[in-house]
């Protein structure tokens, strides 16, 4: 990697707008996120946090403007290249999006199978990640049989198993108790320490205060503030 | 990787027993009909070839031929496609007829004179036995001096040829219709499976699965359905063929027509075609890029 590559942002948005039918979800959004940065996207309900995250994991295409992930605009890439770009991202969905008919092990292994990892190496890697998230003993279980916290941990395992450069998490602690939430955040922190960029969409001001990092604040689809906060910041600053 | 795709494809088939069974049954029925059409056409062809192998052209001489028989024989054998020309004197023909009609000898006893003409029995070369060649030889024979009449079972031959054509055309049309129906049903079956797994397909794409990775299990399911359906259809066809060809009513016919089941090459072609129908059905249901 050259110095220029290292300095290049992993996410760059240029005058991005997105609308659902007549509802303007995002408007004139421009910002950059550097490699190995820890970023919270926050704002009140309906501010556009989830829509922004959806644009970042190419769940939808921006109505206007350009989104660059690791220097590439997915909207201009052929499907094969989009698949390759997605392998650089680990996504934690608010509703987990685990495949209900597949075991915990199979859900996590899917990422490695899809990215063409050597088959014989997959079990070892999956088991080690499940051990990390404390779900090794549930490897054979089907997701619907797990609690919300357990499903969230499986979702985290699936997001980090491929050692992605970028982790996108949508309300990763939204439905968890305090202990589970802390466990999930510790896992994301560990991925960040290993070099990943972590972007978390949350409305939980306490979580932001406990961890700190860069905070992008949205309101009615517009970026209103971008600030760096330390741990235990005073949330009244917003 | 391929083992994983196979596993997922088989899981899909097992998880949707009703629609999978419907697809396999439709393919089996289509293959049964297609196979039956091919089988009938193949055996009709065999019967016609057998008949053509034994066919002979009889050229009857006029009462007072201007050319000696030996010269006529030479000219006949010089015709393209003719293998041999055997002269049958009218007296020999009558003697032969009397032997054949020994049970009705009284019919021939009171003949005042021999009504049969001298004749040539002409056989064609094995590779020159097409209908057109047969008709061509007969037309040439009629132009030779001293030939009064030519017979080769023209009406029978024409009728047999028409029946063979009808069977072949009808078989092809029916085969086409049933294969199209099978294709539509397989496509809909796979589409239903794709819809039922929409969420899973979506997740696969989000984790970076390529289109071939996402689609492979659906193609494999189509291939498996096509292959199993063809196997069942051909099995049913063989059972029906075996039951019919050993019936005593058909034993007499079997002496003249060598009933044969489909050749290995034809079975291979039907299996390949059915498997292709399965894969094509999957392709049609998935489209250029599945909406799932």
Can you characterise this structure?
The complex is a heterodimer of chains A (238) and B (292). With 238 residues, chain A is an alpha/beta fold. Helix content of chain A is 33%, strand content 26%. In chain A, the strands form 2 sheets. Chain A has a 6-stranded mixed beta sheet, with helices on both faces. In chain A, helix 6 (148-160) packs parallel to helix 7. The longest helix of chain A is centred in the C-terminal third of the chain and has 16 residues, at 178-193. Chain B is of the alpha+beta class. In chain B, 72% of the residues lie in helices and 8% in strands. Chain B contains 11 helices and 4 strands. Chain B has helices at residues 2-15, 17-54, 69-78, 90-100, 106-109, 131-143, 154-196, 198-206, 211-245, 248-256, 264-286; strands at residues 57-61, 82-88, 119-124, 147-151. Chain B is elongated. The two termini of chain B are 22 Å apart. Classes of the chains: A alpha/beta (238), B alpha+beta (292). Chains A and B meet through helix 3 and helix 4 of A and helix 8 of B.
Distance between termini of chain A? 38 Å
Query: What's the overall average pLDDT of chain B, rounded?
Result: 81
Pick out the low-confidence regions of chain A.
234-238
| Largest sheet geometry of chain B | 4 strands, antiparallel
For the largest interface, the chains and their residue counts are:
A-B, 25 and 17 residues
Strand content of chain B: 5-15%
Strand content of chain A: 25-35%
Rg of chain A over CA atoms, rounded to whole Å, is 18 Å
Please state the average pLDDT score of chain A. 89
**Shape, principal axes of CA atoms of chain B:** elongated
- Quickly give the structural class of chain B: alpha+beta
What multimeric state do the chains show?
heterodimer
What would you say about this model in short?
The complex is a heterodimer of chains A (238) and B (292). Chain A is of the alpha/beta class and 238 residues long.
């Amino acid at each position: 990697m050259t110095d220029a590559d290292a300095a290049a942002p992993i996410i760059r948005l240029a005058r991005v707008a997105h609308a659902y039918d007549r509802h303007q979800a995002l408007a004139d959004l421009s910002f950059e996120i550097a490699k190995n940065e820890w970023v919270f996207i926050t704002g009140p309900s309906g501010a556009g946090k989830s829509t922004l995250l959806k644009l970042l994991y190419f769940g939808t295409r921006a109505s206007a403007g350009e989104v660059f992930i690791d220097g590439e605009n997915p909207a201009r890439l052929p499907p094969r290249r989009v698949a390759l770009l997605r392998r650089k991202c680990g996504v934690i969905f608010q509703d987990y999006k685990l495949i209900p008919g597949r075991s915990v092990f199979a859900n996590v292994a899917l990422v490695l199978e899809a990215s063409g990892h050597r088959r014989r190496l997959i079990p070892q890697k999956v088991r080690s990640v499940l051990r990390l998230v404390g779900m090794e003993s549930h490897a054979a279980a089907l997701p619907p049989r797990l609690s919300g916290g357990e499903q969230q941990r499986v979702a985290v395992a699936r997001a980090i198993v491929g050692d992605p450069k970028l982790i996108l998490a949508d309300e990763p602690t939204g439905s968890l108790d305090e202990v589970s939430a802390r466990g999930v955040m510790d896992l994301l922190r560990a991925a960040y320490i290993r070099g990943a960029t972590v972007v978390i969409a949350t409305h939980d001001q306490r979580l932001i205060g406990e961890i700190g990092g860069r905070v992008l604040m949205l309101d009615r689809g517009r970026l209103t503030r971008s600030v760096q906060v330390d741990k235990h910041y005073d949330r009244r600053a917003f | 990787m391929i083992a994983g795709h196979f596993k997922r494809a088989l899981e899909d088939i097992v998880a949707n027993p009703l629609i999978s069974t419907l697809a396999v049954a439709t393919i089996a029925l289509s293959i049964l009909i297609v196979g039956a059409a091919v089988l009938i056409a193949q055996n009709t062809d065999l019967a016609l070839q057998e008949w053509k192998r034994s066919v002979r052209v009889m050229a009857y001489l006029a009462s007072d031929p201007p050319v000696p028989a030996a010269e006529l024989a030479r000219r006949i054998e010089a015709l393209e496609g003719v293998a041999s020309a055997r002269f049958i004197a009218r007296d020999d023909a009558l003697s032969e007829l009397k032997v054949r009609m020994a049970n009705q000898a009284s019919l021939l006893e009171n003949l005042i004179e021999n009504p049969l003409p001298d004749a040539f029995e002409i056989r064609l070369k094995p590779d020159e036995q097409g209908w057109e060649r047969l008709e061509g030889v007969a037309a040439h024979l009629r132009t030779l001096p001293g030939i009064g009449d030519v017979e080769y079972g023209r009406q029978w031959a024409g009728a047999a040829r028409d029946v063979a054509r009808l069977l072949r055309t009808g078989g092809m049309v029916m085969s086409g219709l049933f294969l199209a129906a099978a294709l539509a049903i397989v496509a809909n079956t796979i589409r239903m499976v794709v819809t039922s797994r929409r969420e899973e397909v979506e997740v696969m794409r989000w984790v970076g699965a390529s289109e071939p990775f996402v689609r492979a299990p659906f193609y494999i399911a189509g291939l498996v359905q096509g292959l199993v359906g063809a196997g069942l259809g051909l099995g049913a066809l063989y059972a029906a063929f075996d039951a019919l060809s050993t019936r005593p009513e058909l034993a007499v016919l079997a002496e003249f027509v060598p009933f044969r089941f489909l050749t290995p090459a034809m079975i291979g072609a039907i299996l390949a075609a059915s498997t292709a129908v399965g894969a094509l059905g999957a392709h049609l249901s998935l489209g250029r890029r599945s909406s799932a």
